[in-house]
Write a structure and sequence with these properties.
Blueprint (H helix, E strand, L loop, with lengths): L4 H12 L6 E5 L17 H14 L3 E5 L1 H17 L6 H20 L5 E2 L5 E4 L5 E4 L17 H4 L2 E2 L7 H10 L21 H8 L5 E4 L5 E5 L26 E6 L4 E5 L1 H4 L1 E11 L8 E6 L7 E8 L2 E10 L7 E6 L2 E11 L1
Length: about 350
């Protein structure tokens, strides 16, 4: 129970269905004040109080589980090291992969619980052969199957997503009808462990400013920078280049080379990619052999694009029907067969 409206209504629905429900809030920082608070928050002291009040209304047990050490190592340190390596990670996916549906699930099973339920908007379908498939939620605007795409069959079989069939306004109305104070609480967003929302400032405090050159695609030096961690692929603003493009068009970050401390920029057309390879694959079910037609999504709020997908020895390859922009190493690609999640991988290279 995060302290938000979604997990509150998810818990209420399970209670109404007759499940034996226990509310758990995750303490993810030794110093909760260092994480976001208020409307933009997640996992703060304020959120834990909101979650406890909902549990009290539902008359269910409520506990706070301390996963601060695991979260720092698996999510925060990973976030920093990925930027150090010139990649663009998604810490929310990492948290789901390593904390919410791994460490929490393991502890829950050890304590005798059957499953972990959350307020994620995604659809789980159980089949006669005992397998479980993960699908997009009914509410396309809130669908969160992308951030769950790294879960495997064993994990999915122990999950419950009670909000699979409703839209967000209905969830808020259910919360209001139940008298939950979180009914009008805004959704949390951004990165929970960066209290002021300044990602570049956070990285600058944890990574050394190592100056380097900003060059074009043929190697001509256009300017300098104070650290590759200040840039992401697809970035246009904040380049502070003194040499304008011959066409007068804006330039975008094409790639980041942390070893040589070089940031490569070019035109919007140069940013387009048709294919990319993925490593660290996870399959929700047995992977499909041979090339197959599906959809690929590489941003949590991005559109899934038609693609040809193929499993390789080292992971998978995705060939897009139409070019995409802003595909960066370190991002996660989730591949779909219709509305069913097939699996995911971390993008290694794009071309």
């Amino acid at each position: 129970m995060s302290g938000g409206v979604d997990s509150a209504v998810a818990a209420a629905r399970l209670v109404a269905e007759g499940h034996d429900v226990t509310g758990v809030h995750l303490a993810l920082s030794k110093n909760p004040a260092s994480y976001r608070s208020g409307a933009r928050g997640c996992c703060s002291l304020e959120d834990s109080h909101d979650a406890r009040r909902v549990a009290d209304k539902l008359d269910i047990p409520f506990y706070v589980w301390d996963f601060a050490e695991e979260f720092h190592e698996a999510v925060v340190e990973d976030f920093i090291s990925e930027y150090r390596a010139g990649r663009t990670p998604n810490p929310c996916l990492r948290c789901n992969e390593k904390i919410k549906f791994a460490a929490v699930l393991d502890r829950g099973i050890a304590l005798g619980f059957d499953a972990v339920a959350t307020g994620h908007y995604a659809d789980l379908r159980r089949h006669g052969d005992g397998t479980v498939s993960l699908h997009r939620a009914a509410d396309d605007a809130k669908d969160q199957s992308y951030v769950l795409g790294m879960l495997n069959q064993a994990q999915l079989s122990r999950c419950l997503f009670p909000l699979f069939d409703v839209e967000k306004p209905v969830v808020r109305e259910e919360a209001r009808a139940l008298g939950f104070g979180v009914a009008k609480k805004p959704d949390s967003h951004d990165i929970c462990f960066i209290a002021d929302g300044d990602t570049q400032g956070f990285l600058a405090r944890h990574l050394d400013d190592a100056p380097g050159e900003i060059v074009d695609s043929v190697g001509a030096v256009l300017g300098t920078h104070r650290g590759t961690h200040r840039y992401t692929v697809g970035q246009r603003k904040g380049l502070d280049l003194r040499v304008p493009a011959p066409t007068g068009e804006p330039r975008y970050v094409l790639s980041i080379e942390p070893v040589s401390r070089t940031v490569v920029v070019g035109s919007r057309e140069d940013l387009a990619v048709r294919s990319f390879s993925g490593i660290r694959t996870t399959w929700t079910q047995e992977p499909v052999e041979g090339p197959w037609r599906g959809k690929a999504q590489y941003r949590a709020h991005g559109l899934a694009q038609d693609a040809t997908i193929e499993v390789t020895d080292g992971g998978l390859t995705v060939s897009l029907d139409e070019p995409a922009s802003g595909v960066a190493p370190g991002q996660t690609v989730v591949v779909y067969d219709g509305d069913r999640v097939v699996g995911s991988a971390v993008i290694a290279e794009a071309a």
